[in-house]
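Q: I'm teaching a short session on how sequence maps to structure, and I want students to see two examples side by side rather than one. Could you give me a first protein with its sequence written out and its structure tokens following it? Keep the formatting plain so it prints cleanly on a handout.
A: Of course. Example one:
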Amino acid sequence: MKIVETTIFTIEPDDNCLNIINADYKYEYGLVLVQKRHNKFELSVNGTTLYPRLKINYPFVRWIDHKHFLIMNPRTKGEKHNLFIMNIEGEVMRSFYCGNAVQDIAVSKEGIWCSYFDEGVFGEGISTEGLVLFDHTGLPTFQYHSYLPDAPSIEDCYAICRGENTTLWLYPYTDFELIQVNPEKNSFIHCISNS
């Protein structure tokens, strides 16, 4: 295996007003990122700057396919929707509420995975599930605590990563066990640490 190093984005040295908030890069799609310049949020899609007409506050951004990406506010303050699916021209195609206190997000062909930190898990609504898979219309198709009552509890989901096929790996607090969930079978396996 050959490792190739490539620069995909640079900030000009004299541009001290630009901060990168979140980004996603896929070889086949390119780079999409949320940046803040002069206290205003911007989107950059493969070098084209877009100015969304959304109320966003330190959002996540993830590719869905080569023509669509999502932008999601992890904290909600009474908003009805906090996840927005957009086309590469910056138009909102659809939106939905994915819960409060989102820790991480991953996109797969099955939908959009959201994990939550403690304020969501111990809050109210969909966030109390700890981990949810939404289809691309916003319908929850898998809810961790409801569908896997015998699985280790999630009080804070530190990291998630797509696995093979429809599976997802997660690393939740408090036991810090590496867990793989399979939403098709409503099943899980976990790797127990020997430390």
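Q: Perfect. Now a second example for contrast.
A: Example two:
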Amino acid sequence: MRKMSAAAVGAVFLGISLLGPVPSASAAEAATCYDEFYETALAGYVYAYNGANCVGQLGLAVGNDQNWGDSGGSFQGSDNNKASSILNKGNYSEVKFFQYPTTYTGYNPHICLSRAEGYASNLSDNYFMGEKAEGTANNNISGHIWVDRTACVEFAT
């Protein structure tokens, strides 16, 4: 009986070894904006991240930054059109994110992130609203301002 049990156990180990390692989620894939970042974010700030689920912080701002592509403000140069997730830890206001710098004359599609929402983990399913809005907000934000809730047409979720 012992030889059969040992043979059975050996067969199980051999089978497992042939399957290879069991896949596991990396820390970045398992993290969410809330679990990893929202609770520790500084009050009064808006954050933007290069990856989904608030991975790869691009920057943070307590005030407005109307042109993420320039050399002024909290977001600069290469931050333009890079955000894939955003977080609002503002004290009272909503954050209005623009498809183009706010210095752009004419139409300027936007999305908003309310303090109550807290964060948008993946901007690929958030679409800009407004005249001539084009595509998702993912890798397409060029500026932001703090506004009252009434100034927002569309909210990120």
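Q: What should students look for in example two?
A: Point them to this: The helical segments are 2-19, 27-30, 33-36. Also worth mentioning: The chain has three helices and seven strands.
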